[in-house]
Structures are given as structure tokens and as C-alpha cells.
Amino acid sequence: MSPSAAHQTLFVDAEAEAANAARPSANAEDVEVTTLTLRLVAGEEAAWRQFHDVYFDRLLRYLLVVCSGDEHVARECLQAALVKIARHVRRFDRAEAWWGWLTVVMRSCVIDGARRQSSYRALLER
Known about the structure:
The protein is mainly α. It has helices at 3-22, 28-42, 45-66, 71-88, 95-125.
């Protein structure tokens, strides 16, 4: 990519970000995510039930793909991820950012689990 093309791309991206920031109202999904995450941060039990109802199956499906269909590993990672989410949840204003953060937490749990399994196997081999 030429320098001028890169500059144009950055300029277009900056314009898009400015347009998104200047939009008068957020879409319904963004408002729902903002409300849900604020309630989760506050520790509302009803919010955690709603989070579970809305996201549990989606998170499990995501982990099944990441874990190549190994349901046992996916469920273990989901359990670990739910604990991390409960500990580190914060407010999100956009649904995309919320889902992105959730997927990062999921992948980090998969990596942590693989690392633990590898360490355990190495210990057994010694």
C-alpha cells in the first residue's frame, strides 16, 4: 500500500469514527449493553441472570469452535471465563466492544487451560 493510500485509509477511518461519535442516538443493542454492563458492575443478581440467559449459549458455541468441538474443554473454559467476567466486568457503551471483550476473555481462558494441561503433562513425564 502506498503512503498516500495509507493516509487516505487513515483519513476515512478517522471520518467514520467522528461520524459514529457524533451520531445523535445509539442503537437499541448498544443501549441494552450499556444498561446490562452497568447493572453487572453494580452486582445486581437479576443482571447476572439476564447475562446468563442472553449470552451463555452464544459463549459456549464460540468456545466449541475455538476448542475444535471438544465440549468438555469448552465447558471448563466457559466456567473459568464466567469467573473472570464476574471479577473484571466494566461498563461498555457498544455491543461490538462488549462482545470483543468477552471473546478476549474466552480465548485467554482457553490459552490458560492449555498451558495448565501442558504443565501437568510435563510434570507427569518427569
